UniProtKB/TrEMBL annotation:
Pfam families: ADH_N (PF08240), ADH_zinc_N (PF00107). GO terms for molecular function: oxidoreductase activity. Residues 11-241 form the Enoyl reductase (ER) domain. This is Zinc-containing alcohol dehydrogenase. It comes from the Bacteria. InterPro entries: ADH-like_C, ADH-like_N, ER, GroES-like_sf, Lipid_raft_assoc_Zn_ADH, NAD(P)-bd_dom_sf.
């Protein structure tokens, strides 16, 4: 079978399609004909070498993490009812290959009949990250939450899940995506291509921020524009605000 291989840190352009071994059917195997692979910041930052400190890898590797596909075969310790089922899951050793040999039961999920496989695959790295952020920040109906990168793969789920929790949502997006994030449920939308400092001062005060962008300058501007904030970033591990609180 074929897979997409990363051999260096020269970015997406250096990726190659190569023949790789499918791997044997083991008692724990679920063999899945792969149909979709979500492209995550986790992927392209790995390909450019931006994550070498927190994700040490030994090249070459098969890229990708999530997948969506159809089960073709199972090992004797996996349930035969999986055969023919549409599933999504995670493959830590690379998902951008024609056949997935999934051996970790907790990382495989059946797709409900009323949901398309393409839509379901966007849960991996999108909805799961958004739900994690909401749980960590213990979002309440009294919260006003500023979301950066609101039109992205995580941001679109964040808006919808925040509204389900009853929170007020301030979405930060480009001009062309203003209508889109409003349609998702954002209560107010700020244009990151315009004067953000003025927009922040003219908008309601958030008490929590969920950052999906990871730009230090943007986080610094947010932290200095408002009073006390809880900031959770899904895109950077190092941020030291100059303003206390």
């Amino acid at each position: 079978m074929q897979g997409i291989i990363q051999q260096n840190y020269q970015g997406i352009e250096a990726l190659q399609i190569k023949s790789i071994e499918e791997g044997p059917l083991t008692p724990l195997s679920v063999m899945i004909r792969n149909k979709f692979v979500p492209v995550l910041p986790y992927d392209w930052q790995t390909e450019s070498g931006a994550l070498t400190e927190i994700r040490p890898i030994q090249l070459p590797i098969v890229i990708g993490y999530g997948f969506g596909g159809i089960v073709e075969q199972v090992g004797r310790l996996r349930h035969s009812s999986l055969i023919g089922q549409r599933v999504i899951g995670m493959q830590p050793n690379g998902s951008a290959q024609e056949v997935i040999n999934n051996k970790i039961p907790p990382l495989l999920f059946k797709v409900p009949d009323q949901v398309t496989l393409a839509d379901a695959t966007t849960l991996v790295g999108g909805a799961d990250a958004a739900l994690h952020a909401i749980k960590v920040l213990q979002i309440q109906s009294t919260d006003t939450v500023l979301v950066t990168g609101a039109s992205g793969g995580v941001g679109t789920y964040l808006i919808q899940l925040l509204k389900l929790a009853g929170a007020t949502v301030i979405a930060l997006a480009s001009a062309e995506n203003q209508a889109f994030v409003r349609q998702l449920g954002a209560d107010s939308v700020l244009n990151y291509e315009a004067d953000l400092a003025t927009q922040f001062s003219n908008n309601s005060q958030p008490n929590k921020v969920i950052d999906t962008v990871g730009q230090q300058a943007l986080l610094q501007l947010i932290s200095t524009s408002y009073g006390s904030l809880r900031i959770l970033s899904l895109s950077t591990t190092q941020f030291l605000p100059t303003k206390p609180g």
